[in-house]
Design goal:
Order of helices and strands: HEEEHEEHEHHHHEHEHEEHH
Strand content: 25-35%
Largest sheet: 6 strands, mixed
CATH class: Alpha Beta
Strand order of the largest sheet: 6-7-8-3-9-10
Number of strands: 10
Structural class: alpha/beta
Mean pLDDT: 91
Number of helices: 11
Helix content: 25-40%
Length: 272
């Protein structure tokens, strides 16, 4: 892990990040055909924290995120070297079921993508196809409450999810992910299509959810990373436009005292 040394805060951050990683990338390089996208990324993601991945466009942030629930498997010519461990298990090892991984490691996308179904059926969809045998009504309510949406929709659960506002739709997508009881929630620019009020609601929700889930968020918004995350990883393309990990640490340290001058240049808006 590429950590700056020398300050007490950073050492505490390194100790915490290394103590109980939920996901660990070891020497990860990613290719689409002959084009290399990421190079030698080694990074630990701590449990029950919000970790932000930041960096300029085209540096491989979303590619890295999609490696953690094997969404890249769906892209033709995807190939990777290195290793990704999820709670100590090799995600790409023989016999690992990618569908099961996607239940354990949920995904919330850039734009809200509710199914053209009712609010209730959106949340119940995953548990149903996964053979859930408990009380579905209770699970749906619990998931909507966890996503801070229950009070707004409890009287119209049979209404179309497409009638919700953009911010409500995104929280519904979070509830849908929560309903299958994941351990990790990946969020790829989850607020880029939302207004400032909906963005704040999602950021507050991330903070609340990190008590029980590990959250990894890709964001182009440095202010959002500063508000919502505990740790930040900064990626940047090299001269060959291949993404590399430049710096990782506690968000407070990254935003106020970055070790690498490239991190400082990005945070202060000199490029990116």
């Amino acid at each position: 892990m590429r950590m700056a040394a020398g300050t007490e805060d950073r050492e505490r951050g390194a100790d915490l990040a290394e103590a109980a990683p939920i996901i660990r990338a070891n020497g990860l390089s990613v290719y689409y055909g002959t084009k290399q996208v990421l190079s030698d990324v080694t990074l630990d993601f701590p449990s029950n924290k919000v970790t932000a991945i930041i960096g300029p466009s085209g540096c491989g942030k979303s590619t890295l995120l999609r490696c953690f629930n094997r969404m890249n498997d769906l892209i033709p010519n995807f190939n990777m070297t290195g290793q990704i461990l999820f709670d100590g298990v090799d995600l790409y090892g023989p016999g690992v079921d990618s569908t099961e991984i996607r239940y354990q490691v949920g995904m919330v996308f850039q734009r809200p993508n509710p199914f053209p179904k009712s609010i209730f059926d959106n949340v119940a969809f995953g548990p149903k196809i996964n053979g859930y045998e408990g009380k579905l009504d209770e699970l749906v309510e619990q998931s909507l409450r966890r996503a801070a949406l229950w009070e707004e929709v409890k009287d119209r659960l049979k209404s179309s999810a497409l009638a919700l506002s953009g911010g409500q739709q995104q929280r519904l997508c979070i509830a849908r992910a929560l309903a299958v009881h994941p351990r990790v929630i990946l969020m790829d620019e989850p607020c880029s299509a939302l207004d400032p009020f909906a963005t704040l609601a999602i950021e507050e929700l991330m903070r609340e959810l990190s008590e029980d889930y590990s959250i990894i968020i890709v964001t182009h918004n440095m202010q959002q990373a500063a508000r919502a995350s505990d740790y930040t990883a900064f990626l940047m393309g090299n001269e060959e436009r291949i993404g590399e990990l430049i710096e990782f640490g506690e968000t407070r340290q990254i935003t106020t005292n970055p070790e690498d001058e490239r991190t400082e240049a990005y945070i202060t808006g000199r490029f990116g």
